[in-house]
Amino acid sequence: MEVERRGRVILLNGASSSGKSSIGRALLPLLPDPWFLVPVDAIGAMRSTVHTRVLDDRDISEILRRTRLGYHRAVAALASAGNDVIMDYPLSEQWRVEDLLETLQGYDVTLVEVRCSQDELDRRERVRGDRPVGLARSQTMVYAHGEFDIAVDTTTAGPNECAATIVNALGTVPLPKAFDRLRHRRHI
Ligand SMILES: Nc1ncnc2c1ncn2[C@@H]1O[C@H](COP(=O)(O)OP(=O)(O)OP(=O)(O)O)[C@@H](O)[C@H]1O
After folding, report:
1. For residue 1, is it within any domain?
2. Which InterPro entries match (predicted)?
């Protein structure tokens, strides 16, 4: 069946507790069109936690890797049918970036860097209590690939303010976008 348009993608990238999910929720009512909010956690939550086989560390790491590869392809599948998708996803391993560059080739991806000071990340982690202490600190490599289209800093700005900044900037992002610059660097 012929699909008339390719969906757009907004990728909210930042360390744990930087505020990606909060911004994702705040973005929806500000966008003119009905976007899908697809956090990686929502895909992980669909995976069974009750099974008969005992998993070792290697099994678990392979399952997590497959989950993330599946997430990339689920987003591409939605966008391939013309759906606009917000990803809430830390680029905390280099292979995630590499795989997304291939999987989302041909799609309009806006890469948003969600920043937050380390002290504030530590504070949020302590307050929320549902993430291992030190997770945010372990994810400082989320920006290591070195490119972004829009940056917001949640250290002092709230989710609504950051979402408004993103919506206002969406139409004026310089081309080529971050994903295309990264592809150019890697000759993909
Ligand atoms: N701009 C902000 N100012 C103050 N607190 C915030 C802000 N954004 C998020 N928080 C708080 O920080 C915690 C983490 O927020 P959120 O779930 O949005 O982050 P996240 O980056 O999606 O985290 P994770 O990757 O671990 O799911 C929550 O308790 C939330 O209320």
Report:
1. no
2. CPT, P-loop_NTPase
